[in-house]
Structures are given as C-alpha cells and as structure tokens.
Amino acid sequence: xxxxxxxxxxxxxxxxxxxxxxxxxxxxxxxxxxxxxxxxxxxxxxxxxxxxxxxxxxxxxxx
Length: 63
What we know:
Number of strands: 3
Helix content: 25-40%
Mean pLDDT: 95
Strand content: 15-25%
Structural class: alpha+beta
Low-confidence stretches: none
Number of helices: 2
Oligomer: single chain
Distance between the termini: 16 Å
C-alpha cells in the first residue's frame, strides 16, 4: 500500500508541489519538512516523499 500511496504522491507533485509527504501508520505530527532540512533519515519507520528541487525523492520505510 505504501508504494501505491507514493505513486499517487509522485503523480500529484507534477501539478501541485508540496514540501513533504509522510506515508505509514499513524504519521500525524511525526516530523516536518524543516526538521528534515531536505535530507531523508537513514533509518525509516515510515515512508517519505521529499522534494529535492524539481525532483521528488522517495524514501520507503526500511525498518
């Protein structure tokens, strides 16, 4: 399901930019774009869609 949601976010980013998307169970309030400062965490309990300029970086959950 996370991959499916990431695909929707990636498609959406092409017409409506955003600063961060978090994907997973109970993600509300877990982080924000300014805290991440443009960098994906190495260890991730949730997925992230984080823009790097005009490119969207997807970091899937890996723990």
